[in-house]
């Protein structure tokens, strides 16, 4: 009996020790993930307040009372509003102590003036606004930037074109509006039918830059899941239904869906209100517009999309793009297309390596809109 009781106590002790270690490990992980309390940051910043006050009293040449804005600004980025108010109270107390100890007739950098109080109070006010915004959004400071970086990289990965068999060249360039990291233009692509078929969808979501980035991320994930899971003729109707279910205020998008047979070069283009694709014929050296017919995505249910069919012969080039590349406030789409094809003709003899990026640079470098360009070329031999 005594031995069994001892074993029971040992088992309970091991269980309790395991729970304690798990709780401590979880607390540490949660803190660095940004999910835990801000007590550690609060304690560190709180200690800097008396340190700055002592430095102001003892070494006034090196420390100024206005240095109290440093922990306040840091607190606005790191702390929750409740903890931030405690830090403000400590900073106000430090200013009062400095004013009382130094006296009203103190001269030099250590003097506490009404201007110093106003500067510290203003920094505290703006810090509180920042803390309230972070609290409302629910994104901790330690993970906010990481989350945005992760979202941007997910869009880039989803827009990556699959490798093509020998004899085919593909490249894509994307330039968001205003040099931002997020764009309303995106591409999803996949090899289907046992790798014989290339399916590419180029979409332009309403809006541009950051304002369209979240919708573009959501749609790119949904479209990537639909691509290859449905027959090509069912993709745009399914995408249209998905967009309608979102019930967004700006819930429309244009899209063009390319279905290319990599063995024969035959293709279908299905368009949802998108600009036509351009095909360069190696035999004639002329560009021709290729486009299916269909309404914008997200406008009404039951939309139908009629495909356009063609063939990419050896040496031919197919170019898909968004309106930011050819349309501006002072330039018609037809003029922009003429300029784009004129610049693209320069790469016929020089080769098409890097042409997508350079075409955007030449044609629409300073346009304040999202720009995307996709090139697919069949080798001449």
From TrEMBL:
<dbReference type="InterPro" id="IPR036457">
    <property type="entry name" value="PPM-type-like_dom_sf"/>
</dbReference>
<dbReference type="InterPro" id="IPR052016">
    <property type="entry name" value="Bact_Sigma-Reg"/>
</dbReference>
<feature type="domain" description="PPM-type phosphatase">
    <location>
        <begin position="169"/>
        <end position="378"/>
    </location>
</feature>
<feature type="transmembrane region" description="Helical">
    <location>
        <begin position="39"/>
        <end position="63"/>
    </location>
</feature>
<keyword id="KW-1133">Transmembrane helix</keyword>
<keyword id="KW-0812">Transmembrane</keyword>
<dbReference type="Pfam" id="PF07228">
    <property type="entry name" value="SpoIIE"/>
</dbReference>
<protein>
    <submittedName>
        <fullName>Membrane protein</fullName>
    </submittedName>
</protein>
<dbReference type="InterPro" id="IPR001932">
    <property type="entry name" value="PPM-type_phosphatase-like_dom"/>
</dbReference>
<keyword id="KW-0472">Membrane</keyword>
<dbReference type="GO" id="GO:0016791">
    <property type="term" value="F:phosphatase activity"/>
</dbReference>
<feature type="transmembrane region" description="Helical">
    <location>
        <begin position="112"/>
        <end position="133"/>
    </location>
</feature>
<feature type="transmembrane region" description="Helical">
    <location>
        <begin position="84"/>
        <end position="106"/>
    </location>
</feature>
<keyword id="KW-0378">Hydrolase</keyword>
């Amino acid at each position: 009996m005594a031995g069994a009781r001892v074993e029971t106590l040992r088992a309970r002790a091991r269980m309790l020790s395991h729970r304690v270690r798990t709780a401590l490990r979880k607390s540490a992980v949660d803190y660095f993930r940004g999910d835990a309390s801000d007590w550690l940051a609060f304690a560190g910043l709180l200690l800097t307040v008396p340190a700055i006050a002592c430095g102001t009293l003892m070494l006034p040449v090196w420390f100024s009372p206005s240095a109290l804005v440093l922990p306040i600004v840091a607190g606005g980025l790191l702390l929750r509003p409740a903890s931030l108010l405690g830090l403000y109270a400590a900073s106000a107390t430090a200013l009062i102590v400095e004013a009382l100890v130094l006296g009203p007739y103190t001269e030099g950098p250590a003097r506490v003036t009404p201007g110093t109080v106003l500067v510290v109070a203003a920094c505290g006010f703006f810090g509180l606004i920042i803390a309230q915004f972070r609290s409302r959004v629910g994104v901790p400071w330690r993970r906010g930037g990481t989350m945005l970086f992760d979202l941007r990289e997910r869009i880039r990965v989803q827009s990556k074109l699959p490798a093509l068999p020998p004899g085919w060249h593909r490249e894509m360039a994307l330039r968001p509006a205003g040099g931002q990291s997020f764009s309303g233009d995106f591409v999803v692509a996949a090899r289907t039918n046992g790798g014989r078929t290339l399916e590419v969808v180029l979409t332009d979501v309403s809006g541009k830059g950051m304002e369209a980035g979240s919708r573009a991320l959501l749609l790119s994930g949904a479209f990537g899941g639909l691509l290859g899971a449905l027959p090509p003729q069912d993709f745009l109707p399914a995408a249209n239904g998905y967009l309608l279910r979102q019930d967004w205020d700006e819930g429309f998008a244009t899209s063009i869906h390319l279905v290319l047979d990599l063995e024969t070069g035959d293709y279908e283009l299905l368009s949802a209100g998108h600009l036509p694709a351009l095909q360069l014929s190696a035999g004639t050296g002329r560009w021709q517009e290729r486009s299916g017919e269909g309404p914008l995505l997200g406008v009404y249910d039951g939309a139908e999309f009629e495909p356009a069919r063609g063939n990419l012969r050896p040496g031919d080039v197919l170019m898909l793009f968004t309106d930011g590349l050819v349309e501006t406030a002072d330039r018609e789409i037809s003029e922009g297309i003429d300029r784009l094809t004129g610049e693209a003709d320069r790469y016929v003899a020089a080769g098409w390596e890097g042409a997508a990026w350079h075409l955007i640079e030449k044609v629409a470098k300073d346009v304040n809109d999202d720009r995307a360009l996709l090139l697919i070329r069949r080798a001449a031999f």
